[in-house]
C-alpha cells in the first residue's frame, strides 16, 4: 500500500521536533550537530531569536493579501537587494526552481522583445541542478531525474563545467543565454574558476546573450560574499536565489537588470503566494543579520578554519577521504569510500551532512557556526573516518 506521503524520497527514520542554533533534537531527545542546514537553507541556524521575533511580529498583523495589491515588505526587500547587487528589479517566489523558471521566461521574453525570437536556447553546464520542474530536469538531462518524464523541452545545450572553449563552441544563432551555477552544489561542490566566470561575461557580451547565474545554493553569504559572483568581479544579467534568503522560510527571487527584464510587464508572470508578507518579514530579517558589520568576514574566517581542519583530516585518513573543495562555508569532502556510507556513519555518531555528485559529502553548517561547533564536527569526522578505515 502506498504511504499517505508520496514516497518520492528515501526518507531517513528520524523525526526532529526542535532545533537551536547549529543543533537539532529528535523526538527521542537525541542531539545532532547540523552541518546540512536543510541543504544550505537554515543560514542562521535553527530558531534564530531575531527571525522568530520578526516572523511572529508579522504573523500577528497580516499573512496574505495577494499580489493584486502592493506589498510593503516586497518593496523594502527589493530595494535593499537592488542596492546590494547588480539588479534593478526582481520577482519574489516561494522556491528556488520557481525563481529559476522566472529567469528562463525572462530570457526568452527579452530576445522576443528585442527582435530575436529565434534565440531560445540555453548553454548550461554539465552537472547542473536547477530543480525538479519539467524545464529544470530538461536542463539537467540526468537519467535519474528525466527517466519516464519525456518528452522534454529541447532548449538546453550542455557543455563541460568550467570549460571556456566548450562554451564558445556551443554558441549558435539560436543561443539566448549562458546559464551556470558559480559553484556546483548538487553537482559536487565544484567552484568555477574566477577566470571562467569572467570569460562567460565576455562571451555573452560578444554575442548579445544574457548571462544567468543560479545562486540558489551558494548565495546569501555562504561563500563570505553576499553572492558568489562578487568574487569574480563580474555581474550577471539575471540571477535566481532562494534557500538562505529565507533562513528556513520558503522564499526565492529572480533578480534582473532593467535591460534584461524589459519584457516582463503586467500579465507576463505571477504567483499566488510569492512574496507574501510572512516571507518578506523573514527575508528582511535575514538581511538585517547577514549585513551586520563583520558577519561576512566571520564567514570567511570560519570557512578558512574549517577548510584547514578538513585538509588535515584528508591527510590523516587517505583511505577514506580524497580532497576538500569549495569556498567559505559551502565545502565538500570528496570520498574514497562510498559517500553514502560516510553520511550514514556520521549520522550514527550525531552529525548531519548530505551527499552530492562525484562521491562528495557536503559540509554546509549554518553561517553562525562557531569554533566550538567546528571542533566538534572535526572530532566526529575524525573518529568516524578512523572507524571506517579500520
UniProtKB/TrEMBL annotation:
GO molecular function terms listed in the Swiss-Prot or TrEMBL record: identical protein binding; N2-acetyl-L-ornithine:2-oxoglutarate 5-aminotransferase activity; pyridoxal phosphate binding
UniProt cross-references to Pfam families, sorted A to Z: Aminotran_3
Essential cofactor(s): pyridoxal 5'-phosphate
Family annotation (CDD domains): OAT_like (cd00610)
InterPro entries: AcOrn/SuccOrn_fam, Aminotrans_3, Aminotrans_3_PPA_site, Class-III_PLP-dep_AT, PyrdxlP-dep_Trfase, PyrdxlP-dep_Trfase_major, PyrdxlP-dep_Trfase_small
GO biological process, one term: L-arginine biosynthetic process
Keywords on record: Amino-acid biosynthesis, Aminotransferase, Arginine biosynthesis, Cytoplasm, Pyridoxal phosphate, Transferase
Cofactor comment: Binds 1 pyridoxal phosphate per subunit.
Major site of localization recorded for this protein: cytoplasm
Record-listed N(2)-acetyl-L-ornithine binding positions: 132, 271
Pathway: Amino-acid biosynthesis; L-arginine biosynthesis; N(2)-acetyl-L-ornithine from L-glutamate: step 4/4
Catalytic activity field: N(2)-acetyl-L-ornithine + 2-oxoglutarate = N-acetyl-L-glutamate 5-semialdehyde + L-glutamate
Residues with N6-(pyridoxal phosphate)lysine modification: 243
Enzyme class: transferase
Keyword Iron: no
EC number: 2.6.1.11
Ligand binding (pyridoxal 5'-phosphate): 129, 214-217, 272
Subunit relationships: Homodimer.
Remaining remarks: May also have succinyldiaminopimelate aminotransferase activity, thus carrying out the corresponding step in lysine biosynthesis.
Family recorded in the similarity comment: Belongs to the class-III pyridoxal-phosphate-dependent aminotransferase family. ArgD subfamily.
Protein name (Swiss-Prot/TrEMBL): Acetylornithine aminotransferase
The gene coding this protein: argD
Amino acid at each position: 500500500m502506498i504511504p499517505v506521503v508520496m514516497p518520492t524520497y528515501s526518507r531517513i527514520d528520524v523525526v526532529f521536533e526542535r532545533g537551536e542554533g547549529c543543533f537539532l533534537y529528535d523526538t527521542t531527545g537525541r542531539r545532532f550537530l547540523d552541518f546540512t542546514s536543510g541543504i544550505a537553507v537554515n543560514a542562521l541556524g535553527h530558531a534564530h531569536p531575531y527571525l522568530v521575533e520578526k516572523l511572529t511580529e508579522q504573523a500577528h498583523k497580516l499573512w496574505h493579501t495577494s499580489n493584486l495589491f502592493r506589498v510593503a515588505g516586497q518593496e523594502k526587500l527589493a530595494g535593499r537587494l537592488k542596492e546590494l547587487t547588480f539588479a534593478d528589479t526582481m520577482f519574489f517566489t516561494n522556491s528556488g526552481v520557481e525563481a529559476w523558471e522566472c529567469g528562463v521566461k525572462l530570457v526568452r521574453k527579452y530576445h522576443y522583445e528585442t527582435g530575436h525570437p529565434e534565440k531560445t536556447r540555453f548553454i548550461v553546464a554539465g552537472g547542473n541542478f536547477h530543480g525538479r520542474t519539467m524545464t529544470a530536469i530538461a536542463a539537467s538531462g540526468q537519467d535519474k531525474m528525466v527517466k519516464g518524464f519525456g518528452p522534454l523541452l529541447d532548449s538546453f545545450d550542455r557543455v563541460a563545467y568550467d570549460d571556456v572553449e566548450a562554451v564558445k563552441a556551443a554558441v549558435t544563432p539560436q543561443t539566448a543565454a549562458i546559464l551556470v551555477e558559480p559553484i556546483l552544489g548538487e553537482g559536487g561542490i565544484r567552484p568555477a574558476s574566477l577566470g571562467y566566470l569572467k570569460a562567460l561575461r565576455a562571451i555573452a557580451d560578444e554575442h548579445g546573450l544574457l548571462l544567468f547565474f543560479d545562486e540558489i545554493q551558494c548565495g546569501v553569504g555562504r561563500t563570505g560574499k553576499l553572492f558568489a559572483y562578487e568574487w569574480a568581479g563580474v555581474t550577471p544579467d539575471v540571477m535566481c536565489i532562494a534557500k538562505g534568503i529565507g533562513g528556513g522560510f520558503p522564499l526565492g527571487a529572480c533578480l534582473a537588470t532593467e535591460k534584461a527584464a524589459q519584457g516582463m510587464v503586467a500579465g507576463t508572470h505571477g504567483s499566488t503566494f510569492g512574496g507574501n508578507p510572512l516571507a518578506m518579514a523573514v527575508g528582511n530579517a535575514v538581511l538585517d543579520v547577514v549585513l551586520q558589520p563583520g558577519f561576512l568576514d566571520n564567514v570567511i574566517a570560519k570557512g578558512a578554519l574549517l577548510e584547514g581542519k578538513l585538509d588535515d583530516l584528508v591527510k590523516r585518513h587517505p583511505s577514506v577521504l580524497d580532497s576538500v573543495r569549495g569556498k567559505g562555508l559551502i565545502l565538500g569532502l570528496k570520498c574514497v569510500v562510498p559517500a553514502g556510507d560516510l553520511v550514514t556513519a556520521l549520522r550514527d555518531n550525531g552529525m548531519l551532512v548530505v551527499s552530492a555528485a562525484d562521491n562528495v559529502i557536503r559540509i554546509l553548517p549554518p553561517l553562525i557556526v562557531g569554533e566550538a561547533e567546528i571542533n566538534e564536527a572535526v572530532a566526529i569526522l575524525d573518529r568516524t573516518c578512523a572507524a571506517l578505515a579500520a
